[in-house]
Amino acid sequence: MKSSIFVRVFCNFILNNNMVINTKETMENYDFKLSRIYDKIFQDKDYYAETLFLQDAFSRYSKIKLEKILDIGCGTGRHSSEIAKLGYQVTGVDPSSYMIQIARDNNKGISNCEFIEGNLIDVKGKYQLAVSMFNVVNHIMSLDELILFFEAVRCVLDDGGLFIFDCFNGAATSIDPPRNRSIEKKLSSNKRIFVNTVCETSLMESRLTMQNTVEYEGEHFSFNLEHRLWSPMILDELLRKANFRLHKVVKTFNVDVDASISDYKIAFICDTK
User: Fold this and answer.
1) Are residues 149 and 198 in the same domain?
2) What is the tally of structural domains in the chain?
3) Same domain, 256 and 211
4) Residue 142 burial (C-beta neighbours within 10 Å; 0-12, 13-18, 19+)
C-alpha cells in the first residue's frame, strides 16, 4: 500500500466535487446557494430503494459481517440517513461545510449516523462497505486522479469489504449524448424550482459540461459541472490496479440486471482482493 502522499494528493482533489470553478463566486453559487435547495431539486429521488440495493449487493458479494458503512461524497446525507435506519453505523464525508451542516440538521438525534466535513484523510478506522453515489467518479477528470481515488477508498476498507459506486455509462453516452433539459419542481408549499441545463459533450475527450441555471423564489444563479464519461472497460482496469476485484456491473439499481450498452446509469460492485 502506498504512503500517505498519494492520500494527501487525493484529498486535495477528490471530494472537492471537481466542478469547473472559474471564480470564487461560482464556487459560492454551487456550495452555498445550491445546498439550500438541493433536497428540493432531488425530492423525487428514491434514496430508500437505492439503499436497499446497496444492502442486497453486500449480502450477495461479501462474506464478512456488515456493521460500518462509509458514504463518500455524502452531500446532504440522504443516503446516509436511509442506511442508518437499517441499523448500520454510517459515516458520511463531504468537503462542503454547507452540505454537511444540512446533513447534520437532517439527522439530528440519530446516534448511528455521523458526518465529517473534509476528505478521506479525515476518516478514521476501517469499514466493511464504502459507497460513492450520484456520479462522484464522473467528476474525476484524469486517469491518475481516478486511480488515486480508488486506492484511497481501498485504504479505508476491511479485507473482504465492498466498494459500490454509480456513474454515467461512457459507452451509452457516446451513442446517445446527453441532451439539454428544463425541469420544474412543484413543492408542497406551492413554490416552484426551475432548473435549465445546457449540455456540451466532447466525444473525442469523453467530457460533458453541464451549464445549469436555477431559479427559486425570484433568485437566479448558475454553475457548471464538468464530467468525464469513463467507459466501463477503463473503470474495470483502474479498479484492478487499485487491488479491487469487479464482481458485476449492473443497471441502476438492480443487482439482478446486468448493465447493457444502452443503460445510461450503471453501478459497479467490487470487493477488496
Assistant:
1) no
2) 2
3) no
4) exposed
What single letter denotes the amino acid at residue 29?
Answer: N
* Crossing angle of the two packed helices 4-13 and 143-155, in degrees rounded to 10: 120
Is residue 74 scored above 90 in pLDDT? yes
Question: Among 8-17, 32-41, 56-65, where is mean pLDDT lowest?
Answer: 8-17
Crossing angle for the helix pair 232-241 and 143-155, to the nearest 10 degrees:
50
Phi, psi dihedrals of residue 99, rounded to the nearest 5° = -65, -45
CATH code assigned at 138: 3.40.50.150
Residue 218 inside a domain? The answer is: yes
Each residue of 82-122: pLDDT tens digit?
999 999 999 999 999 999 999 999 999 999 999 999 989 89
* Domain coverage including residue 206: 173-226
Beta bridge partners of 70: 91, 130
**3 CB contacts (<8 Å, ≥6 apart)?**
none
Helix (H, G, I), strand (E, B) or coil at 114: strand
**SS3 for 118?**
coil
Compute the distance between CA of residue 70 and CA of residue 60 in angstroms, rounded to an integer: 19
**For residues 192 and 156, is the Cβ–Cβ distance under 8 A?**
no
Q: Which three cell numbers stand for residue 156?
A: 479505508
R_g over Cα of the chain: 18
Distance CA 118, CA 98 (A): 12
Average the pLDDT over 206-233 and give the result: 93
- All three cell numbers of 88, joined, read 448500520
Q: Which amino acid is at 63?
A: K
Q: Is the per-residue pLDDT at 216 higher than 70? A: yes
Q: pLDDT per residue over 240-249, tens digit each?
A: 999 999 999 9
